[in-house]
Amino acid sequence: MNLAFRPSFFADVEDCADYLTTEAGEQVAAAWYESLKKTLNQIQAVPEIGRLRQDLPMAGIRTLNLRKHPNYLVFYRVEKEAIEILRVRHGMMNLPELFSE
């Protein structure tokens, strides 16, 4: 199944990478990005792998932690035609606010 990326996902990747580069250095940011790519591959291979979230305002959202950076979550939905990749954010924020209209 193909991955379909929302623009907010790309903005999140840029924000997270910039933050990690500033706070922890380029090597940490590069390792985070590699972990993100591996997580996306896992989601594509096994879409049901993520935890179904009942606490978020949009139905059908799942999350999966980045393996080597477990505080970061990929938010996605499994649709008929593709897996919709919504966001990637640190899990210690107000998560329902990410999806408020």
Walk me through this protein's architecture:
The structure is a single chain. With 101 residues, the chain is an alpha+beta fold. It has one domain (2-91): YaeB-like fold, CATH 3.30.2310.20. Helices cover 42% and strands 31% of the residues. The chain is built from three helices and five strands. It has helices spanning 7-24, 26-45, 95-98; strands at 2-5, 51-52, 61-66, 69-78, 82-90. It has a five-stranded mixed sheet. Helix 1 runs antiparallel to helix 2 (26-45). The protein is globular. The mean pLDDT is 94.
Concise synopsis of the structure shown:
The protein has 101 residues and is an alpha+beta fold.
State the main characteristics.
101 residues, alpha+beta, YaeB-like fold, five-stranded mixed β-sheet, 3 helices, 42% helix
Helical content, roughly? 40-55%
Q: What is the terminal-to-terminal distance?
A: 28 Å
Alpha-beta classification? alpha+beta
Oligomer state equals single chain
| Average predicted confidence as pLDDT | 94
What general outline do the C-alpha atoms trace? Answer: globular
Strand content: 25-35%
Topology diagram in text:
Blueprint: E1 2-5, H1 7-24, H2 26-45, E2 51-52, E3 61-66, E4 69-78, E5 82-90, H3 95-98
Parallel strand pairs: 1-5
Antiparallel strand pairs: 2-3, 3-4, 4-5
Helix pairs in contact: 1-2
